[in-house]
Amino acid sequence: MSKHFDQMQAIHEQVNSAKSIEKDYKALKAKLSNDELVDKSLGAKLVELQVKAQQLDECKKLLEKERDTKCEEATQELNNIKSEVESRRHDLRARQRKVEAVLTEVDAITSKTNMVRESRVAEVQKLVRKREEIAEQFQQYMNSIGHLLQCADGCSQSKNIDLKDQP
């Protein structure tokens, strides 16, 4: 009986072991099922994230293209502005040279005008002195003729008196 009991006990242990294995199996199966659900969920999430990543890559490419286009436009505008500034600078330099040339010409004309004015002033002073000299000589001439005229007047009056006295 003891043999039988030992066999029963061994069978009982095998049954318990089988139940334990079955329990572990069910737990592992449930875990596997749960892991499969998580796997499917993560797979769906992975696909979703891949789609988002692809959309973000496309958006990034569009933004980079837009950035490059705007940079090209800004560079073109900058080059146009630089060209315009350089053109205006060149025009201003040319204008400045013309103004300097005109100022030099004005200075030359002013200098010439001043020389002519000084020359004319000297001539006018010379003419004024000559006029004064002529006026003085005329005055002397008039004074000398005045004496002659007075003499001639005096003589003619005395002749008139003498003529009147004669019949």
From TrEMBL:
Keywords, sorted A to Z: Coiled coil
Domain of life: Eukaryota
Name of this protein: MEMBRALIN/KINETOCHORE PROTEIN NUF2
Lineage per the UniProt record: Eukaryota, Viridiplantae, Streptophyta, Embryophyta, Tracheophyta
Coiled coil: 46-91
Protein's organism: Salix koriyanagi
